[in-house]
Every structure is written in structure tokens, then in C-alpha cells.
Input
Amino acid sequence: MLSQCGEAVLTSLPLVSPEDAVLAACAVALADGDVVTDPDRLPTYQRDRSTGTPAGEPIAVVFPRTTEQVSAVMKAAYEHRVPVVPRGAGSGLTGGSNALDGSLILCVERMRDVLLVDQINGYVETQPGIFNTELRDHVAKHGMWYAPDPASKDFCSIGGNVNTNAGGLCCVKYGVTRDAVLGLEVVLADGRITQLGRRTVKGVAGYDLTGMMVGSEGTFGIVTMARLRLRPIPAPATTVVAVFADISHAGQAAADIMLATTPSMLEVMDRASITAVENWRPMGLDTSAEALLLIQIDTPGDAGNADATLVQEICARAGAAEVYQSEDPAEAEMLLGARRMIIPALEAQGDWLLDDVAVPRSELARCMREFQEIAERNDVLIATFGHAGDGNLHPTIVTPRGDSAAAERAMKAFGEILDVGLACGGSITGEHGVGSLKQHALFQELDEPSRDLHVRIKDAWDPRGILNPGKSLPRW
Output
């Protein structure tokens, strides 16, 4: 503008911060109430269920309901370089959805619609916010079954399952989430919408970008639709329970079972896990046992009966103190309930830190012995349970609530558990992911060329580094 004398006068304009610009764009794109900045409500969405992981202060939580709204949010965040932390139900256990200072939490919990159930072609298309159990119940009404079943299935979301490549109790036979994903709709870092994968059972055109998205922990894009493989509802399972006085014998039995057959479930609980559940919700579990194997066989007819008999014989040969078979659905459900109750039962005892390692089945017995030694050496309680059939163990460290010295010992034990897993030829995570909790351990697991590829692939998907920064990648 010019003064009366014709001289140029600079007009002072208010500066809009990147954060304010993004929030303004979100307010335009989303419905009333779907942008939350209330400081009293933000802590609810600040962190996941993990312990020992840092969480920052977000600027807001947004709740898109459509793919187009997610796209609008990402376009604004990309333009103004505001970090975005994707979040499902917040049931993660590695800090993967923990907020960063100045970040925008993009929560998909209001994207809960099942879009299509295709019985002929055997898949379902769903938005990401629906809980695992809700989806399973929905497709069951169509005579179909969605296999992946994490222990947290009642409160974990499908989007979170995809982002972490979640496993579950049935994955020993039916695979993990990646095995069930046919295709994905994804909003990229810059807001573009892409369709990955296919509708067909087979397809090898191009790189496997769908498989790359699964397990990427929100660092590549936002999943807004998942096309998931369905199966016929399996036959009612026969349950075999084997009780062991020696934890090594239980590990050997699990390895021997997998050499002979493929059960639909093969779970292990050690004495600390059994005792925690029995003290929390008494159901007659034998707390004198050092370990318990819970095996299910869903092969129908005579073949299933033969498998159940074979499994009992294997457990007996491995040194089981007691083996019995149950075809009572109520008893089987009780036993499965005991397995699923372990984490809340341990949480009731004190502060808990859950680990997740995957090892060759031949190393199960060694690992379980060494975890006990780690507990004794660090003066902490370690309860070990998990998916024995695929070598995925969840040693969980429990310490007195609020005891800072014990918490330090727990973190030391946590690292030693990861070291044992790697020394046994295993991996630092079987299904929970890396998040912010295991980046240093991931650095140890990967060699230098692999670490370099991880960084370069991340840059290709997210060139401005705004998607869940500081998570998942190997860091020393």
C-alpha cells in the first residue's frame, strides 16, 4: 500500500503457524466435534498400552470418517510439515501410536463400517476402526470366518492389526494378518489415495506394496480400507491340555507336535502365568505345574480324532505329568479365557513390561529356561506365555507398582530377553512391532545393508518424514 506521499508502507499481517494452518484445514474438512484440542481430552489419545515408552504433547486429535477426509488432513499436514501419528484403538504395546510433541493424532476409531462381504470370492472390505471381534462376528453372520485373532481381539482394531501385522492364537495354522490381506486402500503422506493389492487369490503384478504396508506401523501411509481374506467357519475344535513339571519338556513337546501335525492352536503358559490367572480369576488351574500346553485341533472327523490322540502321545513321551482331552465347548472356552486373561492378571499384580520375541521352535526350551535365569538375576518376576507353535513368546516382567529401582531392573531384564532371542537365531518381535520401544534392538537384528534399505524405503513413501516419525526404523 502507498502513503499519501506516495511512499511504500509495509502492512503488518498476522503470521499463521503451521499447526494453526493444519487445524484450520481440518476444521473445514471434518465434521463438528471431529477435531479435538481440549487439553483435558488429549491425554486419552496420547499413548498406547505400552509401558516404558515416551509420549509427547499433540496439538490435536482428529477423527476422520471417510477416505476423502483422511486425504484432506494429510494434504494439509504435508504442505505445512506437521507430523501425523496414526492411531486405531490404542491397544499397541510398543509405543507405536504414542504422540510426539507438536504432532497431530489421526485416529480412525470412527471409521467402523463394513463395506462389503463377498462370499463367492471369499473376502471382506472394511474400514479400519472396527474391532477384530466385531468384524469376526459380522462375517460369521454370512457363514464366513476371519482367522487372525490376537489375544486383544475384543479391543484392538483391524487398522492396528494391519499396521503391526498382528498375529494371534490361531496363526500357527492360519497365518498372521499379512496372510489375510488381499488389498488395501491407503492415503499416502502427501494426501494421494492409492489402491494396493487385488481381489484375486493369486496375483504377482508389480512389487508387493500391500505386503510392505502391512507391519509398517503407520510410517508409510494411512490405511482407510482393508480387503481381507475369509475362510469357511472351521469345525468345532478338540482341546488337549498337557501339564508339565519341567518347562523344558513343554518346549520340547511343542517342537515335536509341530513336526508331526499342524494344530489350529498351540499355546504355552508357564507357572507364573498360570498362578497369576488363578489368583485373579480362580478356575481350578494347577498352580504347581511348571508349564501348561493348550492345544486345539479343528480338523473334522476321524482325522481330527487321530490328530488329538497323536498330540496326547507326543506330550506324554516328552514328559507330561498329565494329559487330557476335552470336547466340552464350555471347558475349552474357559481354558482359552485363561490364556487371554494373562495380561490383565499380571497387570493386577503390579507394573508390567511385556516383551515379544520369536525364536525357532527348536530353541523354545532354551529360551524359557534362560528367561527364568534373567528373572532371578535381576530380581523381577517374569511370566512367559505365548504361541509355542510358531515360537512366539511373550515374557512379561512384573515389578511392584511405583518402585523405580525395580523398574530399572525390569528394563535391564527386557533388554536381556531380546539378547536371548537374537542369540537363539530369532527376532526381537513376532507380532507387536518395533514402535519406539525396540528401535535399538532392531538395529542389532539388521545388518548394515538392510538398515540402509529401511531408511531409503521410508524416504520413498514419506519424503518429508511426517508419518509417525521416530518410530519403527532401526536406531542406535
User: Anything to note?
Assistant: The longest strand covers residues 221-229. The mean pLDDT is 94. The chain has three domains: 18-107, 114-232, 238-423.
